[in-house]
Specification:
TIM Barrel; tRNA (adenine(37)-C2)-methyltransferase activity; metal ion binding; ten-stranded mixed beta sheet; rRNA binding; binds iron/sulfur cluster; 16 strands; binds S-adenosyl-L-homocysteine; 12 helices; about 375 residues
């Protein structure tokens, strides 16, 4: 059986005769939220009967979701082979209404997707990295996360969402499938999410950053930097032994990016390790000449982790230093900290609870 969400429109055309059926199927899937072939009423009955034999269109099942006080919702999905992954819906801006109740600004959403089951990069602060890589996600399993979340939350088709590849896994370690997902999401007859609304986050695989750049998809890039010296970075992120900070920076400098956009640098702040002003100072010099924006992230402690959450005062001082030196810098408000925010933690907790039911279980 093939996953219908694995195909770009052109690929699906090649599978069907006559090919124009592909466009109709795309519309049912992505615009009209069909969950079965029976709903695709403008397809002939015999075609529908054949499709059922060959394709499925539900690569994931939502097994659990948790809503945080700030409105973000974390999803635990089960794949066809029983493996589980996480995705998060992050409301970025609330809907605004005027005095007559008319909408003056629509809500804005970002969806954070996983790209692998597990991850083989083994970063010492990350739960996902602890158990290694189980397998890559297929393009359709990546696309499916966005489709399911839009559907579950009744986010209207026209409401454009941003996608960030910041969930479980290292997207550039699964470049083929991730780049395919980017293309499928972009299809005008599908979800029509332009690559300029899609951000690939990487721990810094230099050669893969180059390859992604050469594909010229128009996606945005985020680099998980987390440290400004090779000594500390190698301790936190073993990948730094293969691609030192300098080589990651070189790859970033060569990456094609829209004139109006910036490369995001994520910096996980860990108490007493990388939260000092001397680190901020080094960061400013590393970013010299790059159109960058920095996103500071509070380290979120989990069971067994040896690191601590930084003080708010240190975080703010770090941010102020960067801003005073001309670097755009935001602090990631710990969306969903109360629902064990950082990637991998919902899944991990679910494993520990093994079978115990939670208050909120999705259909
Ligand atoms: N593998 C890619 C994609 C995202 S990894 C990358 O490393 O860039 C998942 C995200 O979760 C990263 O931004 C990482 O910094 C963050 N993360 C992992 N463990 C965390 C923790 N304990 N506290 C806060 N953020 C964490
Ligand atoms: Fe993998 Fe990213 Fe976690 Fe590192 S931080 S182990 S690259 S998922």
């Amino acid at each position: 059986m093939k996953n219908l969400l694995d195909f770009t429109l052109d690929e699906l055309k090649d599978q069907l005769s006559p090919p124009f059926r592909a466009k109709q199927i795309f519309e049912w899937l992505y615009k009209k939220n069909a969950t079965s072939f029976d709903e695709m009423l403008n397809l002939p009955k015999d075609l529908r009967a054949n499709l059922v034999q060959e394709f499925y269109l539900d690569p994931l099942k939502c097994v659990k979701f948790e809503r945080s006080a700030d409105g973000s919702i974390k999803y635990l999905f089960e794949l066809k082979d029983g493996l589980r992954i996480e995705s998060v819906l992050l409301p970025m801006k609330e809907e605004l209404n005027d005095e007559n109740g008319e909408v003056t600004r629509h809500a804005r959403y970002t969806i954070c997707v996983s790209s692998q089951v597990g991850c083989r990069m083994g970063c010492s602060f990350c739960l996902t990295g602890k158990s290694g890589l189980t397998r890559n996600l297929t393009p359709g399993e990546i696309v499916g996360q966005i489709l399911c979340i839009k559907r579950e939350n009744k986010i209207p088709y026209e409401r454009r969402v941003n996608v960030v590849y910041m969930g479980m896994g290292e997207p550039l370690d699964n470049l083929e499938n991730v780049s395919k997902a980017i293309k499928i999401l972009k299809e005008n007859d599908g979800l029509a999410i332009t690559p300029r609304r899609q951000t690939v986050s990487t721990s810094g695989l230099g050669s893969q950053i180059k390859k992604l750049g050469e594909m010229d998809l128009g996606v945005l890039l985020a680099i998980s930097l987390h440290a400004v010296t090779n000594e500390l970075r190698s301790k936190l992120m073993p990948i730094n032994n293969a691609y030192k900070i300098e080589s990651v920076m070189e790859a970033v400098r060569g990456f094609p990016i829209d004139m109006r956009k910036r490369v995001m640098f994520e910096y996980l702040v860990i108490k007493d390790m990388n939260d000092g002003i001397k680190d901020a100072k080094k960061l400013v010099s590393l970013l010299h000449g790059i159109k960058a924006k920095v996103n500071l992230i509070y380290f979120n402690p989990h069971e067994g982790s040896e690191y601590g959450r930084p003080n708010t005062a240190d975080m703010e001082a770090f941010q102020t230093y960067l801003r005073d030196h001309g670097v755009t810098c935001t602090i990631r408000q710990s969306k969903g900290l109360d629902i064990s925010a950082a990637c991998g933690q919902l899944k991990e907790r679910d494993n520990q609870m093994s079978g115990k039911t939670l208050a909120k279980t999705a259909k």
